[in-house]
Amino acid sequence: MTLVEDIYILSRDFPPDERFGLTAQVRRAAVSVPSCIAEGHARPTTRDYLRFIGIASGSLAEVETQVLVAEKLKLTTADSAQRILDITEHIGRMLNRLRSVLEAKIN
């Protein structure tokens, strides 16, 4: 949820002509991360949960890429981008650990 909040704050300063482009895309990807985790947790099987963790990981990679694009296009500062990338790295480690636990449960 912190990632979502930080992405909304970061993208608030993107130019208006990006409202339907990068702004919307990075926000959707960020919201997708906790949404997929929640949806997967609510599913009846561990395999379903694992599938949604995979989707959340993909959305996290999208956020990372889009933040790097925003930095390249000078829509954000290197420091702001790095702060978000540090958060995504932490979340990525948590998702990998959760994936390992769930896979062990299946096996």
Overview features:
about 110 residues; about 80% helix
Q: What's the total count of β strands?
A: 0
The N- and C-terminal alpha carbons lie at a distance of 30 Å
Please, how many helices?
Answer: 4
Beta-strand percent range: under 5%
- Identify low-pLDDT runs: none
State the shape. elongated
Rg calc: 15 Å
Please tell me the overall pLDDT: 96
* Sheet of most strands: none
**SSE string:** HHHH
Structural class: mainly alpha
Helical percent range? over 70%
Secondary structure layout:
Blueprint: H1 2-11, H2 22-42, H3 46-72, H4 78-106
Helix pairs in contact: 1-2, 1-4, 2-3, 3-4
Notes on the protein architecture:
- The chain has 107 residues and is an all-alpha fold.
- Helices cover 81% and strands 0% of the residues.
- It has helices at residues 2-11, 22-42, 46-72, 78-106.
- α2 packs antiparallel against α3 and α3 runs antiparallel to α4 (78-106).
Structure, briefly:
Helices cover 81% and strands 0% of the residues. The chain has 107 residues and is mainly alpha-helical. The termini are far apart.
